[in-house]
Amino acid sequence: MFCAISGKPLKKPVFSPKSKCVFEKSLIESYVLQNGQDPINKEPLSVDELVEIAQTPEQYAMSNSVNSPTLKANYSIPNLLSSLQDEWDAVMLENFQLRQQLDASKVELSTALYKFDAAMNVATRATLETEKLKQELSILSQNLAPAQTEESDVMEQEISTVVSSETIQKMIQKSQDFAKDSRKNKFRPLPCSKVSTEVEVLAEVTPNTEMTSAYVDGNIARGKLVLFYNLEGSCKIVSALKYETGTIYTVLPESDSISFAEPLNETQVLFGTKMGAHGIYDLSQQQTINSLRFNEGREIIMASWVKEVSDHAYVVVDSSGAIALADVEQNCDLDFRANEFPTYYAHLHKDGLLLLQGNDEKLIVQTLSDLQKPAIEFDHDIESEGPIRSARFASNGYWLVLATQKMIKVFDLRKKPNTLALEALVFENEDLVSWDLDPSMKSLFVVVESGGLSRVEFYSFDKSAKRWVQKPEFTYSSKNVQDLTYVWDSQSGFIKALAENEIISLKLD
């Protein structure tokens, strides 16, 4: 027979009618006198209610012999053992009480945490509902506002609203998922030891033609497209093998002109104008899908769309450094509230959130999810290195490439700001006109000019030495090559370039 509190054999067993448990008499009497309740079920209990359990003659004799005054007086070891037993009983009683208190604390803590989680859920729902109501109120205000008096067949003046925190959170989550999936895409370098002897002329263009390139819907895995356009709005989209998908006919007011255009997919073009208009034009349907005005009178520098990240909206940047998210479903501009920064060129990272902005003297990178954070500035000494002519993110997502008239520098975005990923490529006796990288980041194509003659050169990436190595057997010379870009299909790479007043295609072998 063992005590319900200490778990030890009993000397004087006592039965409690409340919990129907057996206890050591000294332990239970001490507990009842202190607490006035049963230790098991906490019901009121008095000492008088305890029932002493009768012992057999053998148990009684043994108990008396062990606890007799004579034995205690004559022998010290039993006396010591008795004292130890009393101490043990006291410790067990205290341990029992502490276990009860711990169980009660666990119950209270669980209840408090449950209530806290419930309060957080309520607060989150209230915040989301507030943001939704603000957006609906803003749209309602626009609809009730007086109509604009400006006459234009294709341009509509819109009042900008602020990008909601809910939209930003969705973009962050989609960007993380897209970046995770894009890491699975591995691009191998295609053969490019020399240029084919056959140069194909795709079309003739006007002298003021510009050239841009972009990945289909912002996704490198879907291939690359090239766009040739002029100020009046004439456009041609070129892929690796297809030459042209259409031409924009005049869609602009007489006082406006195209300042930026970029291919969105095989038939659609993102465009911006010098007066702050921007939108999407479909070459096959020969019509504007949507058009907006962002900061009237400020030139649009960039319009770019990564559909996997921003869903039904593309990013717009104007010459003042203002940034907006153009929602094609709601047909409105959502302002990112960016600080002003004189911007000559801009580029959107493949994750859809990092934005590069630059001018002749300065280059900054900031994240669209938190424009309140200080932008990352990249060092550039304009006195010794000359003005910046172009800069953009590499398709691997890790590099930022900056080019001047005399050098190309590659920064590593994974390390501290201004850390070079490899040795700068310097052109001492030539002027750098244009450059592009293949998606494997193993090949660099440049156009250099010297003595009135333009030359296309090829550099291979030496990973061990961390520098670009020129391949002298690869060369193509022509007069006045203004720009180039690298496109590819499953088997071959091509260089599409503007040379004189022609669009040419060079196949790489």
TrEMBL record:
Pfam families: Prp19, U-box. Gene3D superfamilies: YVTN repeat-like/Quinoprotein amine dehydrogenase, Zinc/RING finger domain, C3HC4 (zinc finger). SUPFAM superfamilies: RING/U-box (SSF57850), Tricorn protease domain 2 (SSF69322). Pathway: Protein modification; protein ubiquitination. It catalyses: S-ubiquitinyl-[E2 ubiquitin-conjugating enzyme]-L-cysteine + [acceptor protein]-L-lysine = [E2 ubiquitin-conjugating enzyme]-L-cysteine + N(6)-ubiquitinyl-[acceptor protein]-L-lysine. It is found in: Nucleus. Its EC number is 2.3.2.27. GO terms for cellular component: cytoplasm; Prp19 complex; U2-type catalytic step 1 spliceosome. Ubiquitin-protein ligase which is mainly involved pre-mRNA splicing and DNA repair. Required for pre-mRNA splicing as component of the spliceosome. Belongs to the WD repeat PRP19 family. This is Pre-mRNA-processing factor 19. It comes from Lachancea meyersii CBS 8951.
